[in-house]
Amino acid sequence: MRNEDLDSTRYKMEFMEAMLEDLRWFGFEWSEGPDVGGKFAPYNQSGRMVFYHAALEQLRAGNFIYPCTCTRKDIQPAARAPHAEDEEPVYPGTCRDNSKFKIKKSKFSWRFRVPDGETISFTDGNFGGQQFIAGKDFGDFIVRRNDGVPAYQLACVVDDAAMQITEVVRGADLLVSTARQILLYRALGLTPPNFFHCELMRDETGRRLAKRHDALSLRTWRTRGIAPAELRAGWGRADKSS
Ligand SMILES: [Zn+2]
Predict the structure, then answer these.
(1) How many whole angstroms from 57 Cα to the centroid of ligand 1?
(2) β partners of residue 86
(3) Burial, 120: exposed, middle or buried (Cβ in 10 Å; 0-12, 13-18, 19+)?
C-alpha cells in the first residue's frame, strides 16, 4: 500500500486514514504500507523526496530533461476535441533549448524531452500490443512541477522500481502514460514492470467515475449500508455487460 501524498494542496492526513479504513472494509489486505511498515519503507511518497531528487539529478546529468517556464495556459490549444478531457496536449517544445543558467531566477518545471517520431511499444496484459508515437501521441512531459513537487510520472516510476513492483494494474486512461513511463525507465536504466490496464468504471450514463465528478465512493456505499460482497457482485455484472 503506497500513499501518494505529494500534492500537499490536496492531501490531508484524515484522507489517508479514511482510505485505509475503506479499503480494509472492502476486503483489501496489504503486507506493506504506511500503517504496517515493510522493507521498502517509507510508504508515504512525501517521505521519499530524496529518491525523486536523485532520479531528477540523473535525468538532468543525462540531458533527458530541460527547464520549462510555460504555464498551463501557454500550451493549451485554442480548440480541443471533447474526448480529450483527460489528455494532456502535446507540448509544442517552446522551452526545449532553455538552459537552467538563463532562467535561474524564475519559477520553472523540469520537462522530459521525448524522442520525436519513435514508436514506444509494449504488450498490455489486458489490451495486448500497444504503440504510441513520441511527439505525436504524447509530447514532452513534466517530471517536476514548478512548485518543486515531483510529477506523478516520475514518482511512480521511481517507487515501482525501488519497491520491486513486478505488475502494475490500473485504469485504461493511463495507457499513454505507460509509454511516457517506459521512456523514464529507459533513461534511468531501470527495467519496466508488466502492465495490465482495466476498462474504466462508468456510471449509468456512461460517464467515467471520478472524484471530480462527485462519483460514488466506497465511503458513500458503506454509509448506505451496502455490503462489500454486494458491491463486488455488482462490479462483476457491469464488467460482463460492457
Ligand atoms: Zn516551456
Answers:
(1) 19
(2) none
(3) buried
3-class SS of residue 217: coil
CA distance 184 to 112: 8
pTM to 2 decimals? 0.87
Contacts 24+ apart (CB under 8 A), 157-160: 157/55, 157/181, 157/184, 157/185, 157/188, 157/190, 158/48, 158/51, 158/52, 158/55, 158/188, 159/2, 159/45, 159/48, 159/51, 160/193
> For the chain, how many residues are written?
242
C-alpha cell at 143: 517530471
Q: Is 127 within 8 Å of 172 (Cβ atoms)?
A: yes
In our burial notation (b when 16+ CB lie closer than 10 A, e otherwise), range 77-99 reads: eeeeeeeeeeebebbebebeeee
The rounded distance, in Å, linking the Cα atoms of 146 and 192 is 27
- 90 C-alpha to ligand 1 centroid (Å): 12
The neighbouring-strand residues paired with 202 are 208
Q: How far is the CA of 54 from the centre of ligand 1 (A)?
A: 23
Ligand 1 mean position, distance from CA 73 (Å): 11
Query: How buried is 106 (Cβ within 10 angstroms: 0-12 exposed, 13-18 middle, 19+ buried)?
Result: exposed
**154 neighbors 143 (Cβ within 8 angstroms):** yes
pLDDT tens digits for range 123-171: 999 999 999 999 999 999 999 999 999 999 999 999 999 999 999 999 9
